[in-house]
User: What shape does this take?
Amino acid sequence: MKINHLGIATKGIDEALKFWGNALGLENVHTETVEDQKVRVAMLPIGETRIELLEPTSEDSPISKFIEKRGGGIHHIAVEVENIEEVLAKLKSEGMRLIDETPRLGAEGCLVAFVHPSSANGVLLELVQENKH
Ligand code: ZN
Assistant: This one.
């Protein structure tokens, strides 16, 4: 396993890039709207992992709610796994609370599923299985 990305909630990606891009010097290599999750994402590689900037695309986006409550910040940590179905089954058998019992389609054709923060010490954990094309 490895950390695939860190998800950061922003009010707007363009504004956030003034810090993460221009000032800090990371490069935005991919921007995409993930309709299913009502977010626009920007991917900024940093070492072997990436910063994922998240911007809500509607008022009922989970990111809108997060920003309302906390004003932005680290939203989730994404762990890359080889076989997401297998990991979900294992977590379920251990009695862990899942937000997604079956994987959904994420950015760049990845399969993703979220684990509830109540099972992960208050951290929203995203499991990612990369699309090998
Ligand atoms: Zn993510």
About this structure: The two ends are 19 Å apart (CA to CA). The CA atoms of residues 16 and 133 lie 30 Å apart. The chain has three helices and eight strands. The beta strands are 2-9, 30-34, 39-46, 49-56, 73-80, 104-105, 111-115, 125-129.
